[in-house]
Amino acid sequence: MSTLSGRRASPHYAAYIKSIKWTSKATRWKRETGCCEKCGGTEHLEVHHLHYRTLCAERREDVQVLCRACHALVHNEDRQHSAYWNAYDTWCKKKRLDPEDDHTEEFAEWIESRRR
Ligand SMILES: [Zn+2]
Ligand SMILES: [Zn+2]
């Protein structure tokens, strides 16, 4: 299951997220769940889409109730994750290494050496 497709936000999505249809659904889920599904926190709950395949017709299993902090983290990890693998692929190509083999340790050393 890929979460990457979920990062492309369309104008349609922006309008939907503000709609009564979505906000009432999200409010109900937040109330029913009562806390963040990651950390159990009860402050600043938000509803996160696990994917966008059922956008506008989401069911409870398509979303996750998260607190603001965990929600931000989820989106951050997503971005950092793909940035890392993009850089890794480019580096492997330059070194004529097969990215499918595990060269992540050398890659980490290379990143370190560039920081110095
Ligand atoms: Zn949380
Ligand atoms: Zn989200």
Short overview:
The chain is mainly alpha-helical.
User: Which ions, cofactors or small ligands are bound in this entry?
Assistant: zinc ion
Number of domains: 2
**What Rg do the Cα atoms give?**
19 Å
From the N-terminal CA to the C-terminal CA, the straight-line distance is 38 Å
Strands of the largest sheet, in order across it?
1-2
How is the main sheet built? 2 strands, antiparallel
Q: How many alpha or pi helices?
A: 4
By DSSP, the count of extended strands is 2
**Helix vs. strand class:** mainly alpha
What sort of overall outline do the alpha carbons produce when their principal axes are compared? elongated
- Helix proportion of residues, in percent? 40-55%
Low-confidence stretches: 1-8
Question: Can you walk through the features of this model?
Answer:
The chain has 116 residues and is mostly helical. It folds into two domains: 9-68, no CATH class; 76-115. Helix content is 53%, strand content 9%. It is built from four helices and two strands, in the order H-H-E-E-H-H. It has helices at 11-18, 20-33, 68-94, 104-115, and strands at residues 45-49, 63-67. The chain has a two-stranded antiparallel sheet. The chain is elongated and about 50 Å long. One zinc ion is lined by residues 48-49, 71, 75. One zinc ion binds next to strand 2 and helix 3.
